[in-house]
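User: Working on a comparison across species. This one is HAT C-terminal dimerisation domain-containing protein from Trachymyrmex cornetzi. Can you predict its structure so I can line it up against the others?
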Amino acid sequence: MISVDKMVLSTVENKGFRYLMKITVPLYKPPSRKTITKLIEAQYRSLKEAYYFKRDPIQYWKSVKHTFPLLYELAIKYISILGTSVPLERIFSQAGNIKTDERNRLTGENLNMLFLSSLAFEDWKLE
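Assistant: Here's the predicted structure for HAT C-terminal dimerisation domain-containing protein from Trachymyrmex cornetzi:
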């Protein structure tokens, strides 16, 4: 952090800078090192928290769950939607393996039964 390195503060504490401030803005009193350190640390914490929530929206909605319960439910419902079509492509691939050129006369009902019977038990999502 800037205040820990004391790079900026060393300039502000020089006699020349203090004289300049006294001439240009006589009523201005530069903040102390302690005050600046507190301000910078507070700003750092708030920006760090804001950055964290930008990276993880689910964590953000969990933190405001009690403040916005209805919005929380909607957000969790729609944020958890997969952002990929891989599961759908896998299903179409399985169906394509069942309905081949040699089995081109399958009805929709028979294709559906063959497809469902080809799924693993875990894919049925039964509890």
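For your comparison, note: Residues 33-55 form the longest helix (23 residues).

User: Helpful, thanks.
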